[in-house]
Prior knowledge:
about 575 residues; 9-stranded antiparallel β-sheet; 5-stranded parallel β-sheet; elongated; EC 4.1.1.21; decarboxylase
Amino acid sequence: MSRAVCVCVCSRPGGPSPVHGVSETVVGVLGGGQLGKMLCQAASQMGIKIAVLDPLQDCPASSVCHEHVVGSFSDGDAVREFSKRCGVLTVEIEHVDAVTLEKLEAQGVDCEPKASTISIIQDKYRQKRHFSKFGIPLPDFVEVDTSHSIEKAGETFGYPLMVKSKRLAYDGRGNAVAHKKEDLSSVVASLGGFEHGLYVERWTTFVKELSVIVARSRDGSMVCYPVVETVHRENICHVVEAPAEVSDKIKKLATSVAENAIKSLEGAGVFAVELFLTEDDQILLNEVAPRPHNSGHHTIESCYTSQYEQHLRAILGLPLGDPSMKAPAAIMYNILGEDEGEAGFSLAHQLIRRALNIPGASVHWYAKPEMRKQRKMGHITIVGPSKISVKSCLDDLLQRNTSNPSKVSPRVAIIMGSQSDLDVMKDAETVMKNFGIPCELTIVSAHRTPERMYDYAKSAKDRGLEVIIAGAGGAAHLPGMVASLTPLPVIGVPIRTSSLSGLDSLLSIVQMPKGIPVATLAIGNAENAGLLAVRILAKDDQELSERLAKYLDDLRDMVLETAERLEDLGSDEFLRRKD
């Protein structure tokens, strides 16, 4: 996990003075890593002064902070002296001297979040116990301090078994997996032994890892950022996708768990709540960071208020900003060290050069002086009109082969009651191909496969589909039944039949009861159904909107050219040449 930052803000001597600008409070930050750097960048935009305490002379924040004090944020004396420069104290890394912070609070120093919160978060076992007391859903866990206790935990929880250090664990450090009983001794040794402080968790089989950034101001007001999905590689955050592709129900549940967790802690600031989504749609809390977080880097470009500006607003008692996304989709890619030293810098530089040629991509380089494998050296955020668009840009950035169309998630479903409808419905597929919209084409019968129809319609939104085109003839129940089972827009295509020439199909689809709308096209006009689907998608997709505008221009030009030819040739010659 990323490191935390502690900010200290001090009042001016001599009592209150006029405020020129956003705030004249000096914010002191414990830690000068990449989070501290981005916090300073947000502060600079608002004219807020930040002092940083960090032991490295050339730490990332040193180039952008108002003042850099060289000293250890885990040294009580250094923190105590540093606090005299500030008016409020916060953290960029949670591994600070929490005991000193508690003493400083008792002396009147303003720490945000509170020292009690830092103390709870520092010890992950204590963190689990704390959240358990407040009814926050968690994986099962237990403290282990002997070979007997960890063997008993293995018998209780089964294998694989997650073994964790209580303290100083982040970015994959301090975690190890025992796949069987015989692994326990080596796993314990790799984590420093029982004396280092260990606990175990029941192995959680999850389908996604999610994260919610929660901001709380001094007055207790809270706002939550959209739920994102985090993708890890070797226990280190690799990619963040915003927003997460999960159902609205899961988003609400994840946000609720995150809010309740932060309500149980003290102090203002930004908090990151990392969560597991299980196979049975449960949300379990993994851990909390009392600071800006890797999963919120994307907010700099994708949200109206970045997590860094929000953290400053919160700890200074300013109104909280709008956390909603101003871009439809974003993806964040961590630039991790792929090699040591200059070789690693060269590889990172090649990646950055490619990113600078990608529309919507922003490069953040932390300027760390030393390159190491798997070290977080920077990140790249790509914003765009759709999740498909930003994922495609990431594929370009990473030079991944995307020639296999089966890897692209469909946005439009084209379904029909039987294979006899295919001659008509293939026209909708042709439209999708012409506009570069991934789609799926299949048979779903309302009468012969009702269970399949039910499952298909209920799962459509969660699978990433955005529009459904349904063709049906005769009784034509398919479009209406599907529309009753999904919140997605459904476009009905009446199929011509031998008995009533499709009039029965048209009337069946168009006469839906109130509350179950189905957009209905002319009999057999699947091409228009496809074009209507394009218009629906283009509303939130700038690239697609531009392609649609070009299509309409081409259509206009074609009509004008035809009119000009008719006028030039006359009707007889025009019809002769047409034949």
